[in-house]
Amino acid sequence: MSALTNRATRSLGAVVATTAAAVSLGMVTAAPAHASDLTLVIKNASGTVIAKAWYDDLTDNLCVKSFVDGQMASARIGPHSGSGSVVGVNHAGFGKPASCTGNMSIAEDRYYWMNLSYPGKASKDGNFYT
Fold first, then answer.
1. How confident is the model at residue 27 (pLDDT cuts 50, 70, 90)?
2. Is the separation of the CB atoms in 87 and 76 below 8 Å?
3. pLDDT band (50, 70, 90) for residue 56
């Protein structure tokens, strides 16, 4: 092998190694998805939770539970952009399991608002990424 061919081969090898290292570094340092879960609670005067709502990002599920029989807790979510539908779910206690929407198949990494309301109490609001 001539010296010129040997030098060209080493240069090509260096370029490939540098490119591979840059691609590898880019994959390691890539920003993670913003997705997250969110839980909101409303408490009574003594500090006991009387209503709870949560969004589970893994299953794209919105759930709500009232811990007081006959008192309706309501949870709503919607996109901050204003374009898209608002989804809600209600629960009136009576010892029943939480009410959940089931998988809503929401697009990933979208910025959403969430609201939990309960009779006679100030609503709780939060923001999250799907």
1. very low
2. yes
3. very high
